[in-house]
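Chain X:
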Amino acid sequence: MCGILGVVSQTPANQLLYDGLQVLQHRGQDAAGIATLDGRTFHLHKGNGMVRDVFRTRNMRALTGNAGIAHVRYPTAGSAVDHNEAQPFYVNSPFGIVLGHNGNLTNTEELQKQLFVDDLRHVNTNSDSEVLLNVFAHELQAKSKGVRLDAAAIFAAVAGVHQRCRGAYAVVAMIAGYGLVAFRDIYGIRPLVVGVNETANGPEYLVASESVALDTLGFTFLRDIAPGEAVYIDFNGKMQTKLCSDKAKLNSCIFEYVYFARPDSVIDGVSVYETRLYMGEYLAEKLKREWVNVQIDVVIPIPDSSRPSALQLANHLNIRFREGFVKNRYIGRTFIMPGQAMRKKSVRQKLNAIGVEFKGKNVLLVDDSIVRGTTSREIVQMARDAGALKVYFASAAPPVRFPNVYGIDMPSRTELIATGRTDEEICFEIGADGVIYQDLEDLKAAVRKANPNIVDFDASCFDGQYITGDITPEYLDRVEARRNGEKDVKPTDDDQMELNLAMSASSM
């Protein structure tokens, strides 16, 4: 998961892009980068770390020009420490192009071979984003036929990308001498929006991963970029759009609403905050049905993304809602930190219990999801240490049983606590007195309640149904082998059977 921005402005773009990255910092904490265009010259600065750490005054002064793109990185492919894989990436053939990408390609190895053997292009890192950039550059060269570009050739190049690339990708790119290009994969798995700011000198356009970036930077939301659609904004401020695939169909990632997106964002016409309220209502109804004899004294959210769900659940059940944890705002999001040891250490640094809210009480902790279980285990123990009599745990999302291959760092079945375990076994693993999960159909209903026009989702981490149709057990073996530094990783027979059944269901 990453955050991307692209702007064509009437004034210097550097501050806009920096401020926008700060707003999207929750989408990636590993690296940050900004590229601007001044005339025909690109200015690029990027590096590992948070936005505030990567950019200094001298860096900002060097980022001149009224147009640019920006990126915050959350590593899902390539290296988590190699600064060369920070984005944006740049190529100078056949045109000067910089590109930033949110998502994950699922046919990267195949594309790398094509680029080297057929397209005669060199990829310098292990990043799928650099692969995507070179595919786009090659398609631009083929569609322009060696002459000047126009909107038709750019849209044809994006159509070529859709034909060659599989997986999830929301992209912002800038072509020297032409303009800003933004496009979204044919399933719309990763979010992308566009907004406008009308000025006395003409319109300014901003493309961003989430609508909250438009709000905070003073832009008016125009709309979501549709699946398979491309937006081209030339440097004179003219915007053109085209649907570049006849196979496009919206299947937005449902985990955006659960965890990743900010609550004040609207994605594909769905208020993230409103959805999380509905998630609490549906979870409350399940508690009524299944935990009839469970006595709960207080509902406590695990800050921050679970707070709307926990509040609505408490109101629905007429149980006291209390803030039981104080959050250290200077510790990053533990879910997207690489390494179990780092996550475990960060939980204790990030949260501290308010003892009076726990002592002598039966407590229901509500979190947005349970992924690896490391955070949940630490928090349950914190509640016990603070004097809770009973600690129950509710997840506003269903069990995460399958790897996510579309841009979320859930690639290993062995790291997912719900894979191959019953709810009772998960309860034991995290040390709780009871665990209850949201049903997947209720989660989908919560999103549709906020926008009835939403039909389908990417919910692969919950149901194992991979909408791109190219994910096999062998593919997941290779992903896990690379992640673990091993030559081969074999799932258990039960895991293999569960995955095969899910994939069979997805093809019906």
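Chain Y:
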Amino acid sequence: MEKENLKQKEKLNVRELTLSNGMSFPSDAELIMMILGSGTKQTPIEYLAGKVLSAIERTNPPELISELLKIEGIGSSKALMIAASLELGRRLNRQPQGSVNKPTDIIPFVQHYAMRSAEHFLVVSLNGAREILSVHVICVGAANMAVVRPRDVFCEPIKEHASAIVLCHNHPSGMCHPSPTDISTTEDLVQVAGLLGIAVLDHIILTRHGYYSLLEHNELPVF
């Protein structure tokens, strides 16, 4: 009983501190805790929030609800509540048309992945007017190594009739320069893109301290 009261007090403290300090104060997991409101008898809210955050980080929006429903303690109401919160945030923070004048203009849309502890490989789809159509997580790597398959990279851009893409991934190590694997992967994807008639505008590496653009360093392969 005392342990349960302590958890309740900690939850209230997060709410009170958020009210005092603003919405930038709580961690991602604490934001999810406030959305969920409570856990279950079998699953404490802290554990539940961690599972939900993990699902959000590795899943693209169209598949999120089905992934959330796989978590014990998350029913359809909570899954919809989480998905609705994320969608509203995306809509309200979307820049007008998400227009890209140069490839690095997409950085504000993906910068938050720089804080991830695992490597995330992303593809940003663009239409002919260089407006952002979508940002998709292609894979989440283990041991700081993302395994990238061309069919996964180009699946959504083809569906969206994208005319161009920007490749992007984070380096959890903090090293901003591309590895030999990064270069060879980019070469493979640029070659496939050429066959599909899709332009690869850049490959951007994100870290907590900055970014590295292959285009800006004249390292983007041309076929």
